[in-house]
């Protein structure tokens, strides 16, 4: 299959191509993807700029119909697209189908948002003067997405951008062009005018600077690594260009003595190891108080060791492969670092299966402290470390002692501790007796500190980024 760019309503090849392979079986070629050259990126930006004014003036009904069409088709094809997603990213099939369904629901939600254009009509402090506060689209937005959620994250950027009247230049991660292509193909048949949505596949080093430096791009929304996010923030800041960043996490899950052991173990198993740990909201630091520590570690170790690791499309598989070989090698390197710092490592070894894929066993690292590298840096794999704490107060201090602040969780049966944690946890999203990973599509997503920068994503809060506010005074 050939995955092409979509520019100004036309499918375009690039200067060269890259091969899209299955991380469950590196001899399974999914397709050949175009690589955009700089001029094609400029063409996409120009087409989006030319289309911006007319698209901004479409009716809410027109935008609703288009987004609803996209959501309906994604949901109808969830199993087909989910299979493609699992082939190219490595999620197990149930997770792949679930992610596709979420993308469809996101488009449906923002179809409704297109009809709910909110504003304020206020009396002025001056007699006889009226004030209208309205939201208007930004113009052209550049969207840069990662490989770990190859259709859900594009959906929660593209859908609000279009719903609020912006035009789009979309750059997906080069590792997962298939889902981006399928999404673009559906959008191409949705009734969107030419130029409103553009897909440019290729290297971030080529496309990223073009999006940031071009004056016709009004805003950049980026999800990815911390170093790249910081660079984008600096470059956009120098140009006074609106920017939204979602970056890393080193998310804590506190387990208190009074926790329901089964609930805590299942929440940590899910949060740390499902989706092969390749979620920015994964529970990578398990902070466990003295009274439950040994029972918790023993039970979680047993449950983890029984997880079935294998080909993402096999019905019995519970954890798929790592998405790419460089990520696999990084995971294995971090395990060795943790071992060298005194950590006791269970699992974490490279695995052989019937197909040649990037398989590894999930790893649980005990006897660590919060100053170890494994607890300071995001690993982005199926690796969780355990930190022992005396009590809730020490556990909270450890949880907040991180440069990140995306998600945090606590397992407890105490309303007092749960309420205190919701208020004093330094994270943008807090879970009580639930995995840290897993956020509904209709609520805001994002964090604080080094995890996020700018307005929240998803839900009604998406309007904060994708629109600007205008205050208009009228003397009748």
From TrEMBL:
GO molecular function, one term: succinate-semialdehyde dehydrogenase (NAD+) activity
One Pfam family matching this protein: Aldedh
Active-site positions on this chain: 246
Keywords in alphabetical order: Oxidoreductase
Keyword Oxidoreductase found: yes
CDD domains for this protein: ALDH_KGSADH-YcbD
Any GO BP: gamma-aminobutyric acid catabolic process
Highest taxon of source: Bacteria
UniProt-listed InterPro entries: Ald_DH/histidinol_DH, Ald_DH_C, Ald_DH_CS_CYS, Ald_DH_CS_GLU, Ald_DH_N, Aldehyde_DH_dom, Aldehyde_DH_Superfamily
Oxidoreductase among keywords: yes
SUPFAM superfamilies in alphabetical order: ALDH-like (SSF53720)
All copies of domain Aldehyde dehydrogenase, residue ranges: 17-471
Family label: Belongs to the aldehyde dehydrogenase family.
Protein name per UniProt: Aldehyde dehydrogenase family protein
Organism taxonomic ancestry: Bacteria, Pseudomonadati, Pseudomonadota, Alphaproteobacteria, Sneathiellales
């Amino acid at each position: 299959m050939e995955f092409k760019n979509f520019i100004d309503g036309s499918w375009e090849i690039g200067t060269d191509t890259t091969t899209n392979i299955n991380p469950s079986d590196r001899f399974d070629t999914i397709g050949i993807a175009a690589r955009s050259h700089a001029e094609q990126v400029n063409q996409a930006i120009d087409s989006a700029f030319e289309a911006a004014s007319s698209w901004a003036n479409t009716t809410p009904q027109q935008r609703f119909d288009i987004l609803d069409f996209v959501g309906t088709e994604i949901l109808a094809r969830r199993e087909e697209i989910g299979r493609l997603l699992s082939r190219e990213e490595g999620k197990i099939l149930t997770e792949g189908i679930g992610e596709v369904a979420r993308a469809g629901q996101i488009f449906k939600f923002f179809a409704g948002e297109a009809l709910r254009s909110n504003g304020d009509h206020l009396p002025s402090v001056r007699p006889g003067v009226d004030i209208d506060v309205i939201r208007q689209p930004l113009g052209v937005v550049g969207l840069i997405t990662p490989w770990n959620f190859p259709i859900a994250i594009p959906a929660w950027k593209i859908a609000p951008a279009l719903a609020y009247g912006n035009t789009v230049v979309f750059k997906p991660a080069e590792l997962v062009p298939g889902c981006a292509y399928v999404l673009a193909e559906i959008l191409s048949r949705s009734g969107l005018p030419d130029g409103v949505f553009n897909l440019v596949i290729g290297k971030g080093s080529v496309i990223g600077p073009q999006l940031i430096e071009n004056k016709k791009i009004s805003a950049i929304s980026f999800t990815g690594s911390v170093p790249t996010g910081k660079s984008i923030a600096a470059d956009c800041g120098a140009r006074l260009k609106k920017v939204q960043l979602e970056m890393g996490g080193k998310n804590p899950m506190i387990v208190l003595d009074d926790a329901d052991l089964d609930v805590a173990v299942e929440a940590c198993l899910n949060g740390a190891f499902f989706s092969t740990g390749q979620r920015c909201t994964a529970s990578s630091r398990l902070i466990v108080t003295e009274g439950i520590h040994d029972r918790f570690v023993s039970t979680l170790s047993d449950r983890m060791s029984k997880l079935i690791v294998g080909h993402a499309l096999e019905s019995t598989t519970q954890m798929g492969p790592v998405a790419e070989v460089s990520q696999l090698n990084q995971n294995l390197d971090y395990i060795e670092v943790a071992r060298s710092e005194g950590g006791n490592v269970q699992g974490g070894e490279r695995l052989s299966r019937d197909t040649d894929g990037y398989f590894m066993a999930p790893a649980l690292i005990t006897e660590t402290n919060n100053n170890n590298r494994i607890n300071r840096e995001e690993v982005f794999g199926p690796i969780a470390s355990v930190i022992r704490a005396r009590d809730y107060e020490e556990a909270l201090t450890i949880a907040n002692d991180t440069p990140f602040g995306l998600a945090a969780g606590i397992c407890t049966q105490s309303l007092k501790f749960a309420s205190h944690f919701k208020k004093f946890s330094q994270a943008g999203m807090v879970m009580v007796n639930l995995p840290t990973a897993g956020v509904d599509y209709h609520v805001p997503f994002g964090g604080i500190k080094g995890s996020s920068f700018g307005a929240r994503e998803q839900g009604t809060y998406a309007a904060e980024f994708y629109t600007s506010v205008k205050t208009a005074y009228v003397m009748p």
